[in-house]
Design a protein that fits this description.
The chain has about 170 residues and is mostly helical. The chain contains six helices and two strands. It has a two-stranded antiparallel ribbon. Helix 2 crosses helix 4, helix 2 packs across helix 5 and helix 3 crosses helix 4. The termini are far apart.
């Protein structure tokens, strides 16, 4: 992002409609994942879903730290990671803004999918779901959502290696 876009970002943030609250970011100390990683995951999800739009300012480090009851360094560390991923840009004294091309970064969607799927897989495993069962379920759901029909192989497990018509 060039310095020419900096005034545009700041002006856009100042024109933010009153009453439009920031997308909610939460922190759960019982979650087992570092607070700063929880913040990173939520910011990425908010960007991917449009809750934070390109050019929009994120909550200030101080404001978010106060709302979450965490140290400002925790929030600063999370903002730094999102900036390193190329999704935001920070300006001293003015805030952190979503960059214009944030939605065109494929890693954004991969990271969001990973953050959503990992806990689901861990839960299924904890419930005793075998790898083959989980893979079969996942393949079936992918087929439903993406309109692909999968061939059922031996033992009722969907076989994705051979997608020739039956």
């Amino acid at each position: 992002m060039s310095s020419a876009t900096r005034p545009a970002l700041v002006a856009a943030a100042r024109r933010r409609p009153y009453g439009r609250p920031y997308a909610k970011i939460t922190a759960d100390r019982r979650h087992g994942e570092a607070i700063n990683q929880q913040i990173v995951d939520q910011i990425k999800r908010h960007i991917a879903t449009g809750a934070y739009r390109p050019g929009e300012r994120l909550p200030s480090v101080t404001e978010l730290a106060r709302d979450l009851g965490v140290d400002e360094n925790t929030v600063h560390k999370a903002y730094k990671r999102v900036t390193q991923d190329g999704l935001t840009r920070g300006f001293v004294g003015e805030g952190t803004f979503v960059v214009d091309d944030a939605l065109s970064k494929p890693k954004l969607y991969e990271d969001v999918a990973d953050a959503v799927l990992s806990p689901a897989i861990a839960s299924a495993k904890a419930l005793g779901c075998a790898r083959a069962q989980l893979k079969s379920t996942f393949d079936r759901l992918l087929g439903e959502y993406f309109g692909q029909k999968k061939r059922v192989g031996a033992h009722g497990i969907r076989d994705n290696r051979d997608e020739r018509p039956q």
